[in-house]
Design brief:
Helix content is 20%, strand content 40%. By secondary structure, the chain is an alpha+beta fold. Strand 2 and strand 3 (49-66) form a beta hairpin. Pfam families: GGACT.
Length: 141
């Protein structure tokens, strides 16, 4: 199956200044710009956040556009990082296409990794939401 080459919306360890940014994105992107995604709430995870689809929430992050020549490699690397396998019920994250608003107000469709249904249900029940939808790791704060 051929994937649609969408930008990515990152909100956790892939953001600039976080530990996975340099490991996965450096040298593979054409642009990185601030963005916001509505309809999701961030929950604290074990050293990284989970975005859970919930009405009314907003998450802050970056819209990352891959360099065309690096797209396939980057998509595969991010799927491995997030341990995402299409259709696998054991996934912690699902990769979904959602609308993201850039800082200039334009809306773009982007891939985003959101909590898989089982994880999302557990987080809604007993997780800790991150106020304001802005996550930073302790070392970057």
């Amino acid at each position: 199956m051929n994937e649609v080459e969408l930008p990515f919306f990152v909100y956790g360890t892939l953001r600039p200044g976080e530990h996975n940014h340099d490991l996965f994105l450096r040298g593979r992107t054409e642009s990185e710009e601030p963005g916001r995604m509505r309809g999701v709430v961030l929950y604290d995870g074990p050293g990284y956040p989970y975005a859970v689809e919930e009405p009314g929430g907003v998450v802050c992050g970056e819209v990352v556009t891959a360099s065309p020549e690096a797209y396939g490699e980057l998509l595969a690397a991010l799927d491995r990082l997030e341990e995402y396998v299409p259709g696998d019920p054991r996934n912690l994250y699902e990769r979904v296409a959602r609308d993201v608003t850039r800082a200039d107000g334009t809306v773009v469709r982007a891939w985003v990794y959101v909590a898989a249904p089982g994880v999302a249900a557990r987080l809604r029940g007993r997780g800790r939401p991150i106020e304001g939808g802005e996550w930073r790791s302790p070392q970057s704060s």
